[in-house]
Amino acid sequence: MKTFTKRYLLNSVKEDLKEKMVFIGGPRQVGKTTLALQCIKGKQARESHPAYLNWDVLHDRDRIIRGQLPSKQPLVIFDEIHKFANWRNLIKGHYDKNKSRMSFLVTGSARLDYYRKGGDSLQGRYHYYRLFPFSLMEMSRNPDSSHLNQLLKFGGFPEPLFQGKERFHRRWLRECSARILYEDLRDLEKVREVSRIELLLHHLPDCVGSPLSVNSFSKLLGVAHETINNWLCILENLYVTFRIPPYGHKKIRAVKKENKLYFWDWSRVADPGIRFENMVACQLLKYCCYIEDTEGEEMELRFIRDTDKREVDFVVLKNRKPEFAVECKTGEKKTSANCLYFRERTDIPCFYQVHLGKLDYGNEETAVRVLPFIKFCKELKLP
Fold it and tell me: What kind and span of H or E run contains 152?
């Protein structure tokens, strides 16, 4: 399968670089460096290009600190510089001194808007983007079942996805987890109990799609509730997992405190049905973040669940108003009773039920539209 190399954020990033700095955050090996290098004019650039400076490379690190920026380069890329405690002051100095003749692009495998370890604020000087794994519409302009099967099996990260080999995928997962736990945690967080976080990460795939019980992990690992919550926040800041809160409508007895957890790499989830749900969650979050990062709208991804345990998997909100709800099913012949129930009792205008089959029936605006996930992505023009 041929890789579609032009990432969905490329044009937006190039346009914003004309005005301000651009920050790109996202998981390890999701393609941030490749995207950044595609912003360099001329022939396809590689990591050896003089405009690319990587904090993890000692020679580059020394040049960054000394202020020795590459000459005659209209764009300078700083990769993983957030690992330096005073990185914001450093970047601010470079930008304020050189913004009339240079553009700056900063990438990192963590939330660059979170790791503000000291220094002056960069507010007003940059636009922030979150780069997501590949989705169906990025793999192909006209995706089919083969693209969907590949994506479900190997996840959306470029290397394992386009290698398409189970052995490579297994090794890649192990190596990626090790780098997150023993490199990123060391560089960004003062965590002593790495082995317990590793155990937490081992158990989390079994919790995907269900209300997450922090108390159960507190008992399992023998640490305080606050500690587990802090570890979960760290995993979110490193783009390993994300949590979504419930949508509380006044006409239903909605749960208010329970969150659901998902992985950025859904291939970590063994159960096929839950893996599909996780992939849909990542696709919808990608849609929300894309609209938020490019258009400035306030987007949220939530789920509906009431005290009687009726649930619909996802609700997308725009500027605090629901746009549509999505239920994931492996079967295709039966409309979800929960969708019909919440259809009558909430102000959500559209309900979709997506599946892996071929049937397409119903109406999303009057009842529930049941349709293949591939068609859902095409019709909503998801990134």
Answer: helix 145-154
Distance between CA atoms of 275 and 372, rounded to whole angstroms?
16
Total domains present in the chain: 2
Q: How far apart are CA 156 and CA 168, in angstroms?
A: 14
DSSP 245: -
Closest CA to 208 of 142, 150, 160, 266: 266
Looking at residue 198, what DSSP letter applies? Answer: H
Q: How far apart (Å, rounded) are the C-alpha atoms in residues 98 and 115?
A: 24
The predicted-structure confidence for 207-237, as pLDDT tens digits, reads as follows 999 989 899 999 988 899 999 999 999 999 9
Q: In terms of domains, do 53 and 164 share one?
A: no
pLDDT digits (tens, 9 = 90+) for 138-174: 999 899 999 999 999 999 999 999 999 999 999 999 9
**Residue 119 to residue 4: CA distance in whole angstroms:** 39
Parent domain of 174: 136-380
